[in-house]
Amino acid sequence: AxxxxxxxxxxxxxxxxxxxxxxxxxxxxxxxxGKIRTLVAETFEKEVFDSGLDSFxxxxxxxxxHCRAFDKIYPEIAAAMxxxxxxxxxxxxxxxxxxxxxxxxxxxxxxxxxxxxxxPVRYRGFRQxxxxxxxxxxxxxxxxVKHGSSEPHVDASLEL
Length: 160
What we know:
- The chain is of the alpha/beta class and 160 residues long.
- It has helices at residues 44-49, 65-80, 129-142; strands at residues 36-39, 54-60, 87-93, 109-113, 121-123.
- 26% of the residues are buried.
């Protein structure tokens, strides 16, 4: 039987099967704050949900012209956010591997995950570095994690 509630970690019940994801090989290097992290399906849960960081994840497709254009400006966003050690900027190829728990409707696709929370907020705004940086900062300021809860307060009016 497949455990429908599986979200990473080990199970005591040997009768449950971990889901298998179509995944690219995990990066060999450790995550470095201020750098763009490449995520893969195999380690997505661990890196996004168990890292203790907020994560802005850019899902891309190698055949998407809009993604190729955004690939050129994503390093500018990382440079603007380099002093924020509580945030991981990441990218994930959503075309050649599964995206656990994410249903992508079009590319590029952007989600902000708060540390300890499983419900992301989608970014739908302009793809200029200053617009993305401003949105990330506004969302993080408006979504303080409530005491005694791993789910942040989400102000849906801020979603673009």
